[in-house]
Write a structure and sequence with these properties.
Strand content: 25-35%
Helix content: 10-25%
Number of strands: 38
Structural class: alpha+beta
Oligomer: single chain
Radius of gyration: 27 Å
Length: about 675
């Protein structure tokens, strides 16, 4: 079976046949405690003193969008260089246009030299480099620290050819080398990567062209502990794929490594997937925000020739890029993460803090912290800038927002003596349940809260719903003045027309107010109301009920079959320890299935474990959550264990979540079953 962590066609730095097997280190689960920084460690070796990569490299790599397909060629590479200039990405800081695997022929020439594929690059690599340089940009190239690269076609690797290959790259005008880890014959990683470092330095001395050196050994040998004087950046994880669960898993692996990053030596959580289609724009904004607050290299992984306006808007957000490129070179650290409500703060050179309020969960959540908690000094008030809304406010010290599911609010906050020139920040939020039954009025309460040091005046609020819905205020929608910390709370009845299908529907909360200087401010918050039906009375199989949401780490959640592979409906009979079950859910970690129970249900039961379809592979942990409380869990289970009975008391819960995490060792082969899963209501 093939899935993102075992397939033999190469995805950048993927473990494939002939490569050393790597175990990914992943942590997961919405209720995981804050990720802690590593214990104090001896200082890493000094970084390379060559003045390169003093901020995280920015550019493009073709692999995530083209892999080894024929559309990876000279025309594409030069077209990307053109777009860097035409679309303003060069001005935003993107400079490297990098070739990944498959650029060469499978065999060296009679002199042992690498040969560019004449079908892909008819004019050779030097001509491409010259074109890229003519645009004021730089060219990158790829090879592996093994006998062959990672692609199954068997392109030549650099092991044993380091000095010859490095000289070729320098002679061609290459500015950046990505050095992979496949087919390495078990040779010590430090030896292999240091040899190429020395080869690149020798080539640079001859040509006067230094190369940025990207170590891509997947974090197997903890390069953050030894590679600061070897390369300019090092991969900390296995490959990213274009999915929410992959991005989230890599985030959690990279966050604890903040002490090892700095100018000229960066943690690399892999390339960007923004624009490739596997995530929503909200999720891509989170991806970009989180990579930036982690001071990660920003290497675009989508084919910009086909990119949407929304994709360019994300990649070209210069305020977010400035967070990534801050010359102090600090990687952001976790302040808190309870319940999937992450606060990550990054110290900036000017003394300000970039603060990401990141919502890991599948529903909107309020996320809050303070200026003091993110490391700012005591001050009467602070200037706060929202880097996606491009608006500036003052705050008395509270940093808070209602963040949509899988969303991120990215702020830049400073102890600015001129804070009073800005209007007060106002927090918009929803109190109460966003669940609505068609034809039945539901009660909601909204709140507009002044977070600023100055008063908000002439405050008004409105709530609108889809066409045909009825939305009526049941209390005041205006306030003359709101002082610091005070709120305008407004009750509403919201009615979806009878017959409205189940599902999610958009509401819009809008507030307007004036600052003490008379500046008019309008803020809006998109909300989601979910039309639900009451759960049936009695005992039902969970696979027969509608879900509020369902996510799975590889392919969709399957009803009454195992996970199978990535396509819908490709599962097999659910099988645990040789026992076949006719009913249940088949998932792949990381996974979450949410159900509306409407405070009418009492118990969930299931037989859980790792499906037999992966042989001896796979480690997972099962959790059942009743609203915000963990009602039951298994601890880590392996394929060697029989099905484990799991029962949870969910009395009084409005929403039940079935969560599968990766067991702490990565998501490879984590095919999990909720066999015979039932709910009693």
């Amino acid at each position: 079976m093939r899935h993102p962590h075992t397939r033999t066609t190469r995805t950048t730095c993927r473990r494939v046949a002939g490569a050393l097997t790597a175990g990914l280190l992943c942590t997961a689960g919405l209720a995981a405690p804050a990720v802690a920084a590593p214990a104090p460690h001896p200082l890493a070796a000094p970084s390379l003193a060559d003045g390169l990569a003093l901020t995280p490299p920015m550019g493009f790599n073709n692999w995530n969008s083209t892999h080894c397909r024929a559309d990876f060629n000279e025309a594409m590479v030069e077209g990307i260089a053109d777009l860097f200039v035409d679309k303003g990405l060069k001005d935003a800081g993107y400079q490297y246009v990098n070739l990944d695997d498959c650029w060469a022929l499978p065999s060296r020439d009679a002199n042992g030299k690498l040969v560019p594929d004449p079908a892909r690059f008819p004019n050779g690599i030097k001509a491409v480099a010259d074109y890229v340089h003519s645009k004021g940009l730089k060219l990158g190239i790829y090879t592996s620290a093994g006998t062959k690269t990672c692609n199954s076609a068997g392109f030549p690797g650099a092991l044993g050819h380091e000095y010859s290959d490095a000289q070729q790259f320098a002679d061609w005008g290459v500015d950046y080398l990505k050095y992979d880890n496949c087919n390495n014959l078990g040779v010590d990683a430090k030896t292999r990567y240091r040899t190429m470092r020395d080869a690149l330095q020798a080539a640079s001395e001859k040509t006067g062209r230094p190369l940025v050196y990207s170590i891509c050994e997947w974090g197997e040998n903890r390069p953050w502990e030894w590679a600061a004087d070897v390369g300019h950046l090092w991969r900390t994880t296995g490959d990213i794929s274009d999915s929410w669960s992959s991005m989230l898993s890599i985030l959690k692996q990279n966050l604890p490594l903040a002490p090892y990053a700095g100018p000229g030596h960066w943690n690399d959580p892999d390339m960007l997937e923004v624009g490739n289609g596997g995530m929503t724009d909200t999720e891509y904004r989170s991806h970009f925000s989180l990579w930036s607050v982690m001071a990660a290299p920003l290497l675009i992984g989508t084919d910009l020739r086909k990119a949407s306006r929304a994709t360019f808007d994300i990649l070209d957000n210069k305020e977010v890029v400035a967070v990534d490129q801050d010359p102090l070179g600090k990687q952001g650290t976790v302040v808190s993460s309870a319940g999937g409500r992450w606060v990550i703060a990054k110290e900036m050179k000017d003394g300000s803090r970039a603060v990401a309020l990141f919502n890991e969960s599948g529903t909107a959540q309020r996320i809050a912290t303070t200026a003091g908690a993110v490391g700012l000094p005591d001050a009467p008030a602070y200037t706060l800038r929202d880097l996606w809304q491009h608006r500036v406010y003052n705050t008395a010290g509270t940093l808070a927002a209602t963040v949509p599911a899988h969303g991120t609010v990215l702020l830049r906050v400073s102890a600015d003596p001129d804070w009073a020139a800005n209007p007060p920040a106002a927090e918009l939020g929803l109190e109460g349940s966003p669940f609505v039954q068609a034809g039945v009025p539901a009660t909601l309460t909204t709140a507009v809260t002044d977070l600023g040091r100055t008063a908000a005046r002439r405050v008004s609020v409105s709530l609108t719903g889809p066409d045909g819905w009825t939305v009526r205020a049941t209390s005041a929608t205006t306030a003359a003045t709101l002082s610091t910390g005070r709120s305008l709370r407004t009750g509403w009845t919201v009615t979806a027309p009878a017959g409205t299908p189940t599902g999610s529907y958009g509401l819009s909360l809008q507030a307007s107010y004036r600052s003490p200087t008379g500046e008019s401010v309008t803020s809006s918050l998109p909300l989601t109301a979910t039309v639900v039906v009451p759960p049936p009375t009695g005992t039902s199989y969970l696979g027969d009920l509608p879900w509020l949401s369902a996510t799975s780490g590889w392919g969709p959640v399957e009803r009454d079959t195992s996970n199978g592979e990535s396509a819908a409906g490709d599962g097999r009979p659910i099988t645990l320890g040789g026992v076949v079950y006719a009913k249940g859910l088949g998932v792949h970690a990381e996974s979450e299935v949410s159900l509306y129970t409407g405070r009418a249900c009492e118990k969930v039961t299931a037989e859980v474990g790792v499906d037999d379809e992966k042989g001896t592979k796979g480690t997972v942990a099962f959790e059942i959550w009743a609203d915000g409380a963990k009602a039951a869990s298994t601890g880590v289970l392996t394929n060697a264990e029989p099905a484990r009975p799991l029962t949870a008391d969910i009395t009084g819960a409005q929403v039940v979540r079935l969560v599968v995490t990766d067991g702490g060792d990565g998501i490879d082969s984590d095919h999990a079953d909720w066999a015979d899963a039932r709910i009693s209501c």
